[in-house]
Structure formats: C-alpha cells, structure tokens
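Session log. Operator J.P. requested a structure for one protein chain; no other inputs attached. Running the standard single-chain path with token output.
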Amino acid sequence: MKKNCFCMAAILALASTLPIMAIEENVESSTTPFVLYGTAKEKEMYSYSNYAESIESAGANVDIIQRRDIERQGNPTFSEILNQFSSIQVQNSNGSLGSTSSIRMRGTDRVRLTIDGVRADRPSMTSPGVEPQFLLSDDLERVEVIRGPHGNVAGTNASGGLIALQTRRGKGPFKVELGSEMGNYGTFKERFALQGEKDGFDYYAGLTWFKTDGGMKTTGLGKIRNDDYNNLSLVTNLGKKVLDDKAEIRNIFRFSRSRKDIGIGYEQAFPYGLYQSPNNYAMNYDIMNTLSFTHNPNDKYNYDTKFSLYHNRNNSFVLPDEFSGDPLYSSISKINSTRLNFQTQHNYKLASWNTLSVGYNLESEFINGRSSDSDMWSGVINNKYSGNTLQNDVFINDLINIKDKLFLRGGARLTHHSDFGTYVSPNASAALVLPTFKLKGAKTKFRASWGQSINNPTLYQRFGTVNSAYMISLANPNLKAEKMKSWDLGVTQSFFDEKLSFDMGYFNSNYDDYIGYRGETDPMTWMYVGQYVNVDKAKIQGVEGKITWEPKNWFKIVSSYTYTKSQDEMTGADLPGVPRNSIKTTAYWTPHKRIDIYAGVEANSGRYMSATKNSDKTDGYVDARVGANIKLVKTENYEMSLRGTVYNLLNQDISMYRQGPTSYYAPGINFRLGLFMDYTFPERKKNKKENL
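Structure written below.
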C-alpha cells in the first residue's frame, strides 16, 4: 500500500511540473533564482532557498567554503573541514579517523545534511543527526553551512541548521587527475578522477582509496593496535542540457565502503575494564543515487524535480578472543536501512522584487536489523527488529527584495508523518543591508531569523534493540517527535569593499520532548538497562563572532569564536558534547603563483559526556595544523604539484572522549605528503572539410 501511495504521489507531483505562462515583464535583480544547481558563484548561496541567490539576502548566519580553499588545504577529511566553522563541533567517539562521529551545530546534533539537495543521514542512526566519518572531501565542489532552524525548505531534523554539500561537476576539455599521498601511522591515499564537458554534456568520476592505521591511545593502554581505517569511495556526476539549454537532466551516484578496526574490547568479567582487542571491527556500505530534472522555460518560472535512493548497511563485529575475561563472548550486529525520496520545487518570479517557491516532498524509510550475542553463561541470544515510515510534506517560501537592501523571507512546511501525525514548521527571516554612514566602501548588515522545527526519532531509536548478558537496550516505539523554537539576531560590519568584515550574533533555542538516552546499572548483577526517552525540556543559547580579512586575493584569514550554554532542564546539567568556548582560525597565503600555504588553529574547552550531574568531562585542548601546495611543473596542459600537511603540531594529548577514569586521545603529530598531477587533453582542431 505504501509503495502504491509513493508511486501515485510521484506521478501527480511530476505532472504538476508542467510550465506555466509568464504574466508580466521581467526586470533583472541582483537576486538571480534561475541558476542550475551546483553553479552558484562565490558571492551566492544555493541551499537557503534551493535556488541561487546573493549571500547578502540571508537573514541567517551563513558560511561557505569553495573548492579552491578545499584544494589549498590538501583535501582534508570532511570532519576536518567542518571543524573550521564556528558553532560546529565534530565529536569523535575515540579519537582516530573513521571512528563513529557526530556533528553538533549550536549545541545540538539535530543537524540536516544534504548532498546535492537530497537528505543524506542514515535512518539507522542512534540519534537524528549526521555521521561525517565516511565522507571524503576530494569530490566536493563546495560546502554551505546555514545555522538555525531550517525546517521550512530543508525539512525535518534541521533545528540546529543545515550542512549542504555539492558534488564536483565536469568543466572544460577532457582532464585526468592522479594523486598519491602517504604519511605516518601507515596513512596513504590513492586518487584517480576524470572530468570534462562538451556539447551540453558534462561528466565527472572520482575514485579514492584512503587508509590509515589510526593512532588512537587511551589512559592505561597507550597506543591502540588494530585501529585501522580503510575507505574506498566512488563518485560520478553526469549531466546533459536539453530543450535548447533551458533544461538539464543529471544523475549523481555515490558509493563508499569503509572498514574500521575498533581495537578496544571490554572485559566481561567483574569489574568491566578495557583491553586491547584484536578482533573487533565495523563495516559500513553507503549507496546513494539522485536523478534530477531542472527546467527554466522562461524568465519568470523554473522548477526542479529529484528522485533519490539512499541505502546503508552497517555491520559491527565483536569476535571471541583469548584476552577477554569471557573468551567465548561475541556480538554481531547487522542493520540495513533505506530511504526513497521524491521532491520537487517550483519557483515563480511574481515581480522583479518577489520570488515565490512552493514544493512537495515524499520520503519512505525502512529498517531491518538483527543481532546475535553469545557468552559462556547465557549461551546465544538472538534479536530481530524492523520498521518503516512514510512522510509527506508541502511547503511555501516567499522572498521579497526591496531595492537590494531589505530582504524579507517567510514560509511554512506542512508535514504529515505516518506515526507522528501532522504538524506545521513556520520560518521567517529578515536582512537589512545599508551603506555605513559617511564611510566609503563600508556596509552594515542587520539580520534576524525565527523558526520552529520538528525532529523525528530515528527508526533505530524506535525499533532497535540490544539484548545481551551484560546490557539491555530497549526499543521505544512510543517516542514523540521533538519540537523546537529558535531565534537569532546578528550584525555584520564590512570595510574596504568587503575586504574586512566583522560578524556578531546571538542565538536561543528551546526544545520540548527532547530525545535523550537514560539508563542505569544494577549494582547486584552489573546489568545495564537503557532506553531512548523524551526529556521534558532543553535550552541552548550562545554567542557567535567571526572576523574575515582578505586584503588581496593571495591572502585570507578567518577567525571565529563561539560561546554555547546548553542545559537539560530535567537534570540541570549541560547537554553532552558541547564545549562552552571555542576559537577557530584558518589562514591562506599565496606568496608566489606556484605556492599555496595554509595554517589552522582550533581551541576548545572541555565537553561533558552525558546530560547528568557530575558527568564525565574531557579536557580542553588546542590543535594546530599547517600545509603547503607547491606547483612543481605547470604547462598549458599539464600540472604536477607537491602537497604536504602536518596535523596536531603541539603534540599534546587531545581528549576526544572520556568514560570514568579512561580518556580516549587523538593521535599525536601526524603528516601527509603526496604528488598530484592533472593533464588536460588538447581539443582537436577542426580541419577545413569539417568547417565546411
């Protein structure tokens, strides 16, 4: 029945994409909504309204990192890119690359991640957030970060904000890219890509193999063995312009296979303790395919339609070994989750100063899992679970542009969920951009936004179970959706034609029915029993500040500060994973046209591990990194570069996670060095007969 509903809704929505006639003459404005996805310019953003527009029109706090800056940093991991943004923290479960991670924005892990406009968080996660550890940056064109509630256009689970990724697309003549990189801790990365564009057809394909030994260490155990991470990623992006270049058909495919050797086990004898485990590992498979059709029939109307499939298989293995207190103990978990999605958005330019957008979203999620636990006392315990949901959304968004100085935006999303009912998520924002009084080349921007958002529990939170000899995690199918209200205010002051800018803002978010995890250990049996539950209320507030200085195109420095105060109002404790203070700085310098240098510093105060009084807390830390890109050879068609990066220059013990007396530390100083080459095939010149 659900599949029939899905197909019928898709057919009806697709029928609604027939173009309409223009009503009045078009007058050009600096807000240009009809730019193809993935082609927004440097001073434009795409994901705030799902069409290209001037970044000045944003009433929210927005940051963008371009392909140019990603390359200057030597294509770091996606987590390393995110950690450069203010109000964003990537919390790693044990410190080494590839380990389970979560993203928090403005103190909450309720963050929406999209890849090419499509939701990309897996339904089987233990919290409604994002895991960045499986994503590499080599195939990314740009990353857009929009803070605050974004439930209107982005949809559910976007109360903290939106992180939107765009995949590289082919440009220019046929080009081949090769790269080989290595470093300490057994790290290497091999890279092959090709791209090009001809006669309205563009293509890009990238294959990346990344491997590292990890380098994690813990209190008492020192460096952990069996901490390897191995990631194989394939990305393709194919597009074709049709209908006299007024429309585009595009298919983007992503596949990744990741293996993470966990390296740590827990003795099952009393009392529990860590030990070096040779047999624990996890496997993750991601498949994502998006087929889209974009059409711009005239200057007053365009639309975009997407069909997408996201499938994830996540397996974890704790296998018997002689070092455990129970040498017969084993645990195997296998979870499959799938999301089918159809979405369409229609943009109407009602006047030169008014753009109206309406859209529809349909998504269906499925999960099935099974686990098997075995030990010398209880024997084998098997668990199976499954679940599915169906969600329909319609939304409307209106942007009013008054003389490119005042931007008013408002709208709402109506969501019907098969299990949580019907609810509305309204959003509104405003931005006022004015020349600074009696100061040439300076501008002042005031911004404000307000919104409500809904965060649905994940399928795992509602249906996933664990039942072993030492732990019981109960499913909670009665979980309610979180409800959030948030507002923020900010001002940006720029000087010297935007070469120097200061931004300062305040945010405040209040949650009802916040989803948390509650559990306790029976002192007699040492059996741990837990369950996901709705916390009555939670509150998060803070201050954001940023300075950007780019006096010339060969030098840029971005520095930010964030203060975040979060509280579980049921316990009075800080929410987990949120440092009170965070300072981040990244600098780019090109002293010569063949040399790029960058440096970054990140300082964070300690983070609590759970929202309970006297919770374990990590120590604060300072991390620093530097890198360089030197073009050794450069001709008209060929380029060879040497790239090097050094991480954690201070070689300190950076505590990423803490449990009782045990701290989990990130690796010490580590480096990567590699050669990268690209060759552009010269275009064949037409002979006289072809010209005739």
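Operator note: The radius of gyration is 25 Å.
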